Amino acid sequence: MLEAVSSTAISAGQSVGRAAESEMTAPVAGAVQSGGDVGFDTVLKQVTTDAIGTLKAGEAASISAIQGKESTRRVVEALMSEEQALQTAVAVRDKVVQAYQEVVRMSI
Q: 7 CB contacts (<8 Å, ≥6 apart)?
């Protein structure tokens, strides 16, 4: 049962990871270029979704490597992408917190 769940999670994670890699910036760029009602929340959701997909792909690649189904090169690439996505997410979080703190300090 655990193997069935693991293989399902791995294949789902690989699918999400491949989709996230191929469309990392296309949806956001397309939404911005269309001139529609694109807000900060929409862009932030898309970036978050892409980061989560990248993290899942890295995890799936690691699990596949443990099972002997994935090459070392692919695992290293997935983990480097995962690390970059995590660093980006932390940087965005820090900037949002900094902006919030500046707004709180404003006198009314």
A: none
- Rounded Cα gap, residues 30 and 24, in angstroms: 11
Mean of pLDDT values over 64-74: 92
Please name the residue that has the structure tokens 């692919």: 74
- Per-residue pLDDT, 56: 93
Segment among 43-47, 65-69, 75-79 with least mean pLDDT: 43-47
The answer to whether 6 and 63 are in contact (CB under 8 A) is yes
User: Quick one: tokens of 82?
Assistant: 């995962």
Judge contact between 42 and 96, C-beta under 8 A: no
pLDDT band of 28, cuts 50, 70, 90: very low
